[in-house]
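User: Hello! My lab partner asked me to get a predicted holo structure for this protein. The small molecule is zinc ion, SMILES included with the sequence. Please write out the structure tokens.
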Amino acid sequence: MGILAKMAGVVLAISLMTFIIFFGRLPIFRRTPIAWLYSFFVVHIPNGVLALDRRLTGGKFTSSLQRFGSFMMNDKHPTILIFFLVLLVGSEYMAVPSAWPYLSGVKRIAVVVMCTLPYVFLYLAAYSDPGTVALGSLKHHLSLYPYDYALFHPGARCYTCNLLKPPRSKHCPVCKRCVGRLDHHCIFINNCVGVGNHHWFLLLLLSTAILASYGGWTGMGLIRDRVVERFPTWSLWPWRAYEVVGGAGTALANTPLAGTSRKMSFDTWLIYLSWGFKNFIHLASVSLLGLLISPLVWGLLAYNLWNVWTGQTTNESLKWSDWKCDMEDGFVYKRRMSHERRPVVVAATREASGTDPLTSSTRWPVEAEHVLVRTEDGNPPAPNNKDLPGVGEWERVWTLRDVENLYDLGFWNNLKEIFIPNYQFNTRGLPAAERRGRPRKRVPRK
Ligand SMILES: [Zn+2]
Ligand SMILES: [Zn+2]
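Assistant: Hello! Below are the structure tokens for the protein in complex with zinc ion.
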């Protein structure tokens, strides 16, 4: 029982820590214990260590640690990918052979398929091009999405790559390149997640989540069956287990109660369970790990699907949450987009890429209808400011509900767009005016 509690404690602590480190900075957890724990682990503990080290070694220890940390976080290296692989291979090596003799033919096939798929999707996610923006592919990336005149504006350049920034692209500081529709850089696949491999990344999450849950569930089931085989009155769930009392040498021996059964206490129930765990220690550890990390992987998948649902990347959701703060402070204005072409930007884009940024995105069925600007002082920009696009009066925007997300075309369209390269939206047969006026989804309120 001791070993069981320790094992569960360690696995639970690791899962919780991982969850906090991964999700703690997301806007959704602001002003919750998750965010407090995140700043405790990521800000306060490192600061405390830093202060202590300044006293003890004059800061030598932390500066070498910082170099190591910055290498781990900011350089491209496969350490976490290898850790993930070792965890996957190790778990399968520990669990599958001990479970195999007890599995039916169908389950054996299922296990082989489920164990193989994460490797396939990991390989595809890690080694396919996430959508690198280079001189040769710039034209293609510019044609994928229109500029929304909120998060992405025509004419913006990446000064590291010295290229125009296509709509929805972002420079990845780890890989040191711009990537089309960059979601985030993922250390588990040692690659960016972008327009070229987002679908492989989602499938990797799905297959890993299924493997963890199925493995955990089946492993625990097998252990339960072995315990019941040995102690037929025991049951894992519901906890309605019975024990026979009055065996030779016990207190109730030779009393009228000997040979009768009574409801098992929770402690005794646990002793039977730990008998199963001790006899199948490898399978038990892996099953427990699988069950405990399942919510984490499903949670990651759910977060990614939520982004698909709302038609935004992780990068865009972070940008929108900045906009939200500025909106609440009263610094954000919008006005109607004029579809008169802006000659300067168009000429510059055409020269750089051979493409017209305002007319080449024919694939996308809708265009920006508003221009969004941040102001320095909370006053609206001058109506005759020729540097800003759009026409008419500036209107103050207080909330994200008052702006539209150009890149959200509904869950199924968003999903198809991720899974089918250069997906052509079916707008044929719709009159042009109606095509432009399609109701658009709004940016979700955070
Ligand atoms: Zn760049
Ligand atoms: Zn990257």
